[in-house]
Amino acid sequence: MPKITQQQKEAVRSDILKAARSVFIEKGYEAASMKDIVARSGRSFGGVYLYYSNKEDVFLDLLRRQFEDMAENFAPDKPMSAWEAFERFLGEQEKRAREAVGGLAPCMFEYLIVGRRDANRRSLIEERHRAVYGSMFALVQDGLRRGEFQPSKSVETFVHWLVSFLDGIFLESIMTGAERIELAGQFELLLSVCRSILMPLGKEESK
Amino acid sequence: MPKITQQQKEAVRSDILKAARSVFIEKGYEAASMKDIVARSGRSFGGVYLYYSNKEDVFLDLLRRQFEDMAENFAPDKPMSAWEAFERFLGEQEKRAREAVGGLAPCMFEYLIVGRRDANRRSLIEERHRAVYGSMFALVQDGLRRGEFQPSKSVETFVHWLVSFLDGIFLESIMTGAERIELAGQFELLLSVCRSILMPLGKEESK
Amino acid sequence: MPKITQQQKEAVRSDILKAARSVFIEKGYEAASMKDIVARSGRSFGGVYLYYSNKEDVFLDLLRRQFEDMAENFAPDKPMSAWEAFERFLGEQEKRAREAVGGLAPCMFEYLIVGRRDANRRSLIEERHRAVYGSMFALVQDGLRRGEFQPSKSVETFVHWLVSFLDGIFLESIMTGAERIELAGQFELLLSVCRSILMPLGKEESK
Amino acid sequence: MPKITQQQKEAVRSDILKAARSVFIEKGYEAASMKDIVARSGRSFGGVYLYYSNKEDVFLDLLRRQFEDMAENFAPDKPMSAWEAFERFLGEQEKRAREAVGGLAPCMFEYLIVGRRDANRRSLIEERHRAVYGSMFALVQDGLRRGEFQPSKSVETFVHWLVSFLDGIFLESIMTGAERIELAGQFELLLSVCRSILMPLGKEESK
DNA sequence: AATGAATGAGGATTCATTCAT
DNA sequence: CATGAATGAATCCTCATTCAT
């Protein structure tokens, strides 16, 4: 019978992750040391290692929760057309790209790229890819089902293409800066391209 | 009067870089140690430090040469229309993306992302960005001058957009694999999108 | 709440310093390596670096404590005339010079001379100079105040002169050996010279 | 049959030493590297190692020549009283002390102190000590023989005492600076003290 | 459950000296 | 004689992780 409840345990984890998050964002994944995390969390080495067995473990939990939060927010809360949903989705991505620099995303890229050979990280990469691909695919599929979209191209390819673009714009935002790369303009352009792919015959709707 | 000629010196450098390249590709930038490079080059620590003052120095020389090689290959060797040149360029990029996994590109991403806070690396990022942006911009500009292209969108935004996409497709190729993401299909799609942006009024040429 | 008390911490420091001291004395400052200190202290690298961040840090703490010990011993514990105090002081110096060879003093000279260009060490030199000069100046000043001393020469110059001599005799003791340079005789001579400078009119007291 | 004459050999040595001297003065003995010496001499490693087998060898030759030069200059070139010679000698020492900072003396101290355990350096220390002691002893002896000096103290002790003082004042000049320690005043004081020791009955001569 | 002192392998870098040319 | 490229042992220092308390 554990002396502390599951809730307390969760509270500690969340506490550690909060500290870890700020350390990772500030220093990057590689440069962040357990010492930093321990110090910022106001705990001891033992105290942290009791909940996480190493730096990677901490980071993965952080990522997992990030994903969960994202998924939660993603559910459309009001009825809308498939295109509106798609638009909203891209809008969301634009916002995320814009805010990426100060967030965990650069760390995640770093983590995944540095560890691209590691089996565990590879599976995380795949999982993440599948998740992004899947959610976009669902959006398009929805439009197809409704008859809104009549894509002139293979849907699979189109979605891959979209994923590539979003990854790229994330990377560019992080490395070069959102302003510098005309983030807003790029998304506008993307939107119009997507419309002409998904709804090639559709009358131009006012944006 | 130097004991070894500039050519021999260059041969040694090239020898070291060859070893370093394979180490970097195999282990990644962070995980590679000078010890690895020294061992694989069949030289001594001193022998390597005689030519390069640290791991970063080795890597940067490797990158620099990579860039130079790329630039050399880029010069179009026969007269062609702007669109043909553009097509060729994208074809080249596709080939490079396909070959990226086994090459130095993943390391470069790693190097740049891990060091995104470092001033020197930031300037390398900018330089690289400018180079890629510049060469694409030139291609489009050429088409404009010739009257081949009548882009319906801002050229600057379009080029930024293209850069983002290429970065993204590189990243995806590296992380998820060219086959998995339907690399060829993506480039085909990209090509057709670019055509409709650059030559919105043009008759559809059979691809 | 620290796991080990300040006292234990101090005990570890003192333990490391004891080891370091013997290494420094045996090998000299330059020749001593952290590896030596680590080995002799029976600890690990990390264990030593936990308390001191490098060789110099260890050495400076060693020096600092040496100075403190010296200062403690210096307080005259019984009432005496200024001349008696002066005599005692010189006696103390003689003893220290005699014991210098087997102590830390040679290392300190080494440290200061080798690093004579380094700003930090320069300030240590000055500090040390001021301390020695100051304590001697105080002794003479005391005699002046009491009317015991009527020096025929500038007090400042005399004290500088004394410092030089003491430094020299230290150096000679270390390098050539106390016996060889007739340390005792030199101090006797110095004492009589000082008396005739400080109390030129005084009746000769039998030594 | 050597291909180069002894003279040429000597010229090369002198050339190397000139470079070495400036390196040693600039960086200090420990900090100077063979690479520095090789570079400044405009020669190659092999070229230097052909004449000197290591850094110490270079330095010792430098010292030896320094001593020889000093000895040459020391011969009094005109007849004078023993006291005048003594005075001149001290004057010479004052000048040397004043110029010590920019010369080889700091290096020599460094070399001797750092290597105080090394048998070869110890013998150099002794040799140097004997030389200094000997030349001073000769001066005093000369005064005794002429009947000029009637020292009230043991001549041996007095000379040791003088050597200590000179060593000390050298050290202080190097470390603290000639101005700071009132070099001139110290020598004046020393002179008057010496006079009263060597010629206790003599009438005070106006300085 | 929590602490935090201690571990020690591992990585980067230097430099006196050698030796093939 | 002269060169200078090459050697590699030696040094410093960090940091993820453990474990006695």
Description:
4 copies of one chain form a homotetramer. Chain A has helices at residues 6-27, 34-41, 45-49, 55-74, 82-99, 105-114, 119-146, 155-176, 183-198. Chain A is mainly alpha-helical. Chain A folds into 2 domains: 1-56, Orthogonal Bundle (Arc Repressor Mutant, subunit A); 76-198, Tetracycline Repressor, domain 2. The first copy, chain A, is elongated. Chains A and B meet through α6, α7, α8 and α9 of A and α6, α7, α8 and α9 of B. Chain B binds a DNA duplex (21 and 21 nucleotides) through residues 1-4, 12, 33-35, 43-47, 49-50, 53-55. Chains A, B, C, D: Residues 33-52 bind DNA. Chains A, B, C, D: GO terms for molecular function: DNA-binding transcription factor activity; transcription cis-regulatory region binding.
List the helices and strands and how they pair.
The structure is a homotetramer of 207-residue chains.
Chain A: H1 6-27, H2 34-41, H3 45-49, H4 55-74, H5 82-99, H6 105-114, H7 119-146, H8 155-176, H9 183-198
Chain B binds a DNA duplex (21 and 21 nucleotides) through residues 1-4, 12, 33-35, 43-47, 49-50, 53-55.
Brief account:
Chain A has 207 residues and is mainly alpha-helical.
Number of strands of chain A: 0
Alpha-beta content class of chain A = mainly alpha
Largest β-sheet summary of chain A: none
Name the shape of chain A in a single word: elongated
Q: In whole angstroms, how far apart are the ends of chain A?
A: 60 Å
Summed up, the helix count of chain A is 9
Low-confidence stretches of chain A: 203-207
What pattern of helices and strands is seen along the backbone of chain A? Answer: HHHHHHHHH
- The pLDDT mean of chain A sits at 90
CATH superfamily of the largest domain in chain A: Tetracycline Repressor, domain 2
Largest interface: C-D, 47 and 46 residues
Oligomer description: homotetramer
What is the CATH first-level class name of the largest domain in chain A?
Mainly Alpha
Q: What is the rounded Rg of chain A?
A: 20 Å
* CATH architecture descriptor text of the largest domain in chain A: Orthogonal Bundle
Integer tally of domains of chain A? 2
Q: Roughly how much helix do the residues of chain A carry, as a percent range?
A: over 70%
Strand content of the residues of chain A, in percent?
Answer: under 5%
- Topology-level CATH name of the largest domain in chain A: Tetracycline Repressor, domain 2
Protein name (chains A, B, C, D): TetR/AcrR family transcriptional regulator
GO molecular function, one term (chains A, B, C, D): DNA-binding transcription factor activity
Pfam family, one (chains A, B, C, D): TetR_N
Organism (chains A, B, C, D): Cohnella terricola
